[in-house]
Backbone:
């Protein structure tokens, strides 16, 4: 299970990184979202993966580390708010500049227009 | 009440911010009163905190009375008290300046401003790595909205870059925090420092990977060389009072580097101690070179000041790179000076731009200025101070820095630091002579409100004041540096003490 988990996280972050480096705002937003999913999964696994354990400290029986769960919850909330903000920002930028390039360019001719 | 003093810099802006959000538009007068009042109160709280910390005692506030290392703590030592006071002083100048009309160009200026202060103060006070992330997010969220306050093409475009970069940075921050938690099993900074002392050897690689990832995140906030490209554009596009407040934002990154690497990776960390030093040292010198070139190339006064912020970042990081208590003390003195003076210069640039009609702050021939004499006088004060010419505080700060360099570091630091000072001097004299002497036509600027004059004078006036008070201030910074050099004080105070029961 560990290797499956690691591969999933790695794949998500690789896709996220690739999309974040694109030139249009839409792929960038999707990329940031994927990146935050990868980060959330990663954080979740940091206390070690526990299968069939109790979710909280429960006497002497096996239990999962509760702290990463709390951290992930915080990270999800913040990430959610940020995604909403970035979407609105991308739409504003599209409206103000007339195109959806992150540098505000009209064409991909490498020349910046003001 | 005194027991709750430590939490006030976080609670006060939070409450003020919530009250200010009650109405989106209108009630300008009462909003301004609350905004300025809360910031002035923050100055008083800051002074009280410095007075309390100056005894040398490290105190902490356990929220909900959950004792460290289990609960969330706010830690007050000399450094955090100093930073909170500095933030409050800068914010007071900026918020009074904004009351002259900048706050009405968009909605919710004062509420967002208070939340920005909440985030900054929280980042300075927290003793917990994950909470540092949370407060970073709070201050970033507020800064996104403030950066785009008033709207406009340039701001939106700068905002897109700034937001995307910082979101990627936040992801990296979480990964780094996750790695450090996985390797040490704690998030409390003092506890982490204590646990690093008995870290199993096979985890050292994991911890150093996490630590260096954190350095990238803090470097992005502080604007080190390969990560600074967002700064000039964002700072020169932001509304003036916001740009002035942003002068402290790069210092949040510097503070985080100073705090995390002096406390967690202090001497008790064994082989991991000081692992950031060589990185920071060489990158800071490279940052100085890039900033010097940028200062010379800037064709706009606001862009010029933004590059001057970058010069100060390079100088401060060089202080961290040197690492000795003398260097840290010098960097803290320089930090106070540069934050207030560059903040003041951003405000002054706005005053000048308002007077020059279409030319704005661009360094081209324009209309003569009303009250040009006063503006030129203030510009001279700011320029002399920021370029590091005697007799103002920049010269003192840089001299302290030059003196703190050890023999092996001098051949690198001295030419870089003095060279960028020369670049700044050339660029500022050129800017000043263009702005004030090359003019034609009628003076047509609007009369400037007293609030604007107050904001500029408040921040730039800090420079002569810092020279007069150089003795006590440098004593305090030296004591701070010695406290930082001895992380055992904080670790003992947090892990073996009962603390203030709330």
Residues:
């Amino acid at each position: 299970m560990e290797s499956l988990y690691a591969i999933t996280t790695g794949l998500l972050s690789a896709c996220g990184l690739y999309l974040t480096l694109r030139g249009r705002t839409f792929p960038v937003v999707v990329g940031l979202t994927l990146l935050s999913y990868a980060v959330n999964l990663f954080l979740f696994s940091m206390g070690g993966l526990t299968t069939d354990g109790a979710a909280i400290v429960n006497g002497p029986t096996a239990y999962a580390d509760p702290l990463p769960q709390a951290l992930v919850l915080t990270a999800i909330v913040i990430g959610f708010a940020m995604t909403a903000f970035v979407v609105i920002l991308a739409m504003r930028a599209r409206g103000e500049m007339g195109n959806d390039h992150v540098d505000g360019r009209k064409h991909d001719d490498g020349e910046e227009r003001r | 009440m005194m027991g709750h003093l430590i939490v006030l810099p976080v609670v006060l802006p939070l409450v003020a911010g919530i009250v200010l959000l009650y109405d989106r538009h209108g009630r300008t007068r009462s909003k301004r009163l609350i905004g300025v009042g809360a910031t002035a109160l923050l100055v008083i709280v800051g002074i009280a905190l410095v007075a309390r910390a100056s005894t040398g005692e490290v105190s902490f506030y356990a929220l909900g009375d959950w004792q460290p290392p289990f609960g969330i703590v706010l830690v007050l030592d000399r450094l955090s008290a100093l930073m909170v006071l500095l933030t409050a002083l800068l914010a007071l100048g900026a918020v009074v300046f904004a009351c002259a009309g900048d706050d009405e160009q968009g909605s919710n200026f004062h509420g967002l401003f208070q939340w920005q202060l909440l985030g900054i103060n929280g980042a300075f006070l927290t003793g917990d790595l994950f909470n540092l992330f949370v407060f970073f997010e709070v201050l970033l969220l507020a800064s996104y909205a403030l950066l785009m306050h008033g709207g406009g093409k340039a701001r939106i475009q700068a905002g897109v870059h700034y937001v995307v970069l910082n979101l990627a940075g936040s992801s990296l921050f979480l990964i780094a925090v996750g790695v450090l938690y996985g390797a040490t099993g704690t998030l409390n900074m003092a506890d982490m420092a204590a646990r690093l002392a008995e870290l199993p050897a096979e985890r050292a690689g994991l911890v150093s990977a996490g630590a260096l990832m954190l350095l990238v995140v803090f470097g992005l906030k502080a604007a080190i060389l390969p990560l600074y490209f967002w700064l000039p554009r964002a700072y020169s596009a932001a509304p003036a009072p916001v740009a002035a407040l942003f002068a402290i934002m790069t210092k949040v990154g510097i503070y985080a580097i100073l705090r995390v690497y002096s406390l967690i990776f202090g001497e008790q960390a064994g082989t991991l101690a000081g692992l950031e030093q060589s990185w920071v040292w060489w990158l800071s010198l490279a940052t100085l070179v890039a900033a010097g070139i940028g200062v010379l190339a800037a064709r706009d006064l606001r862009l010029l000041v933004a590059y001057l912020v970058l010069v100060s970042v390079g100088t401060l990081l060089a202080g961290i790179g040197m690492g000795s208590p003398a260097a840290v003390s010098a960097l803290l003195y320089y930090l106070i000076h540069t934050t207030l003076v560059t903040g003041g210069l951003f405000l002054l640039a706005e005053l000048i731009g308002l007077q020059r009609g279409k030319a704005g702050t661009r360094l081209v021939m324009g209309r003569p200025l009303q009250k040009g004499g006063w503006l030129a006088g203030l510009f001279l004060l700011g320029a002399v101070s920021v370029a590091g010419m005697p007799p103002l505080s920049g010269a003192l700060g840089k001299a302290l820095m030059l003196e703190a360099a050890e023999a092996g570091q001098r051949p690198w630091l001295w030419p870089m630091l003095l060279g960028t000072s020369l670049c700044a001097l050339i660029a500022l004299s050129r800017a000043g002579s263009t702005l004030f002497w090359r003019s034609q036509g009628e003076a047509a600027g609007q009369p400037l409100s007293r609030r604007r004059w107050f904001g500029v004078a408040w921040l730039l006036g800090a420079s002569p004041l810092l020279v007069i008070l150089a003795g006590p201030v440098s004593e305090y910074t030296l004591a701070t540096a010695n406290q930082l050099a001895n992380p055992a004080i904080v670790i003992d105070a947090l892990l073996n003490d009962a603390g203030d029961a709330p």
About this structure: Chain B touches chain A through 28 residues (CB under 8 Å). The beta strands of chain B are 59-62, 73-76.
